[in-house]
Design goal:
The protein is mainly α. 79% of the residues lie in helices and 0% in strands. The chain contains four helices and no strands. Helix 2 packs antiparallel against helix 3, helix 2 runs parallel beside helix 4 and helix 3 packs antiparallel against helix 4.
């Protein structure tokens, strides 16, 4: 199975979409409230945490399901998922939220 046909599987593209959504939550928080820290974690922080944590079982399922059947495409998609997770983590890390 090649990359394009494998990426159509929900377990392949959902973690990427969830990372984009988590990044969008952070960016919307930055646009609306700026970089000033809040006294309490708000809705944006909880949404970000849920989106990032919910990816883990999906990625694990994908790795187990497709890792042996089509390793080359699976590793490529797993790398894409990892890069997108790092992109979603970067603003939180660098802004020290």
């Amino acid at each position: 199975m090649n990359f394009a046909s494998m990426f159509k599987r929900p377990s392949a593209f959902l973690p990427v979409l969830m990372s984009w959504a988590a990044l969008a939550v952070v960016l919307m928080r930055l646009i609306t409230h700026g970089v000033a820290p809040q006294a309490d974690e708000g809705t944006a922080a909880h949404l970000w945490q849920l989106l990032m944590a919910a990816q883990l079982p999906i990625v694990a399922f994908f790795a187990i399901r497709w890792g042996r059947q089509s390793p080359k495409a699976a590793v490529t998609i797993l790398a894409l998922q990892a890069v997108m997770a790092i992109v979603a983590l970067a603003p939180v890390y660098f802004l020290e939220w």
